[in-house]
Write a structure and sequence with these properties.
about 25% strand, globular, 11 helices, Rossmann fold, five-stranded mixed beta barrel, six-stranded parallel β-sheet, OB fold (Dihydrolipoamide Acetyltransferase, E2P), 17 strands
Length: about 375
């Protein structure tokens, strides 16, 4: 069910990439934070009446805890303000907010010829992560080894569909940490659009010219507290895609020292399931050398994961020296499940060593 509310824009609170956060007043007099996508509703002035979807807000969700501006009925974008789209790829298909984009791999694309028979990543390192929050940490690890690497981010549709929802991607692009973003499946709004993770990876290699690709879902992963009921299973599928296309998949482990849920302490069960059960191909598993009991637990869990794969998963212990400075120098906030770097260092170091390992592959 959708919770609908009417409201009036009071002020612009912040803006990034193609998104604007507004302060909106409801008829009750209460104020809410509301997110509007510029491509969908334009930029709204104070006093504009808006129609809101408040479903996630009223449920008290974390990542999605905002009202979404569905429309400004009295200030609709004029037809001349909506650019014509040469492509025919529809994303968020058959929903009220479906959008049409030009896919990098479709016939009208200037890159169609390059991708028509493309079938090989030529050993491209592909770092795969469960959570979107791993992205800046992976990049920090990459850059700590080689700051000149050209990196493409491939966003899958396990979380947010519009990439403009991500302040992280906007900040990383602005800082030059990402060369390009590719939105695949039902996600949209990237520098390039692709039909699926396979063509997204091929575009990263053949169109972007990336040295490394990073794959994760967008913000707002879904979990149900069951072994298989979480959106991060897509990480295992991305590992399969990378290897099938001749890439070098690198599994970024989801690690935590502070998560209150036991199933996510040490190496998360999401990583154990996605890499141990969903992925079916050879892949590298970098493990951070962490001190004390936590380090011993993480290493034991990682060894168990790799041992259960009958040699398919290859464990690599990676030192964390210098990574704290690299992480603290990130141009965007580090936050995972509401915890910052100082709250859960192991989580960010676990992602950073995956980036460090991928950069080392290129040096070998």
């Amino acid at each position: 069910m959708i919770q609908w509310r009417r409201g009036v824009v009071v002020e612009v609170r912040s803006r990034w990439a193609g998104a604007v956060e507004y302060a909106v007043r409801l008829p009750s007099g209460d104020g809410v934070r509301a997110l509007g996508y510029v491509d969908a509703v334009g930029v709204l002035a104070p006093g504009t009446a808006v129609l809101l979807n408040t479903t996630a807000l009223e449920r008290g969700l974390g990542t999605g805890g905002l009202a979404i501006v569905v429309a400004a009925p009295d200030a609709l974008p004029r037809p001349v303000d909506v650019p014509a789209v040469r492509g025919h790829v529809v994303k968020a298909r058959y929903t009220p907010s479906q959008t049409m984009v030009l896919g990098v791999d479709e016939q009208d694309s200037e890159h169609h010829a390059a991708l028509a028979d493309a079938d090989d990543l030529a050993g491209l390192p592909v770092v795969v992560a469960d959570l979107h929050s791993a992205l800046p940490a992976i990049l920090a690890g990459l850059r700590a080894t080689n700051p000149d690497l050209r990196v493409a981010y491939v966003m899958t549709d396990g979380g947010a569909l519009p990439i403009d929802f991500s302040r992280t991607v906007a900040g990383l692009r602005a800082a030059g940490w990402l060369a390009a973003s590719v939105t695949v499946g039902q996600t949209y709004g990237g520098d390039l659009e692709a039909v699926n993770v396979h063509t997204g990876l091929l575009a990263a290699h053949h169109v972007v010219g990336a040295d490394v690709a990073v794959v994760s879902q967008g913000p707002g992963n879904l979990g149900t507290g069951t072994r298989w009921g979480f959106s991060g299973t897509s990480a295992g599928e991305a590992v399969n895609a990378a290897a099938t296309l001749g890439g070098r998949p690198v599994c970024s482990l989801r690690i935590s020292e502070a998560d209150p849920r036991g199933r996510h302490r040490g190496v998360s069960h999401h990583s154990l399931t996605a890499y141990g059960r969903v992925s079916l191909v050879p892949a590298d598993v970098p493990v951070p050398r962490l001190p004390g009991e936590l380090g011993a637990r993480v290493l034991e869990q990682a060894r168990g994961l790799c041992a259960s794969s009958a040699g398919r998963l290859r464990l690599h212990e990676v030192g964390t020296e210098g990574l704290e400075q690299a992480l603290r120098a990130a141009p965007v906030s580090l936050s995972t499940m509401g915890r910052g770097y100082d709250d859960d260092r192991a989580g960010f170091l676990g992602a950073a060593v995956a980036g460090r390992y991928a950069a080392r592959i290129l040096k070998d």
